[in-house]
Write a structure and sequence with these properties.
Helices cover 28% and strands 17% of the residues. It is an alpha/beta fold. It has a domain of 82 residues: Alpha-Beta Complex (Ribosomal Protein L13p, Chain: A). The protein has a 4-stranded parallel β-sheet with strand order 5-2-1-6, with helices on one face. Strands 3-4 form a two-stranded antiparallel ribbon. Strand 1, helix 1 and strand 2 form a beta-alpha-beta unit. The longest helix is centred in the first third of the chain and has 13 residues. It is globular, with a radius of gyration of 17 Å.
Length: 144
């Protein structure tokens, strides 16, 4: 038997839309990372980009369980001495509503060129409107 490899140019890649309102951050991130990798397809190859395109709407209405809204802290460094900045989940979602979900998805993808390439296939929007109507995205359900 021969192993079947699908050329990235010939792969069938669908568009899906996910409504993140009142859904848990980790569950959505895991489902999106799984679909971006293409692990749900029969022709999955770990070194190829064969996943689907995903549009996530209502990212500002995402929830976290327990007291993570006040206890979960995001860090980044400005590059200057003593430039470590920290933000709680509440502050981060107020300032950049798509950032917590993007960071969670990025952490679940492979590190390196393939992971950076896959991250470009997810579009995250704070509100319910998105400019990808022409691609006719199908709704994808997330189980709680």
């Amino acid at each position: 038997m021969k192993t079947i490899f699908v050329n990235e140019k010939n792969a069938v890649r669908n568009w899906y839309v996910i409504d993140a309102a009142d859904k848990t951050l980790g569950r959505i991130a895991a489902k999106v990372a799984f679909a971006l990798r293409g692990k749900h397809k029969l022709a999955f190859a770990p070194n190829q980009e064969g996943g689907d395109f995903l549009v996530v709407v209502n990212a500002e209405k995402i929830v976290v369980s327990g007291s993570k809204a006040t206890d979960k802290i995001y860090y980044h460094h400005t590059g200057y001495v003593g430039g470590l900045k920290s933000y709680t989940f509440q502050k981060k979602i107020e300032r950049h509503p798509d950032a917590p979900l993007m960071l969670a998805i990025r952490g679940m993808l492979p590190k390196g060129p393939l992971g950076r390439k896959l991250l470009k296939n997810v579009k995250i929007y704070a509100g319910s409107e998105h400019p990808h109507i022409a691609q006719n995205p199908q709704p994808m359900e997330i189980e709680e």
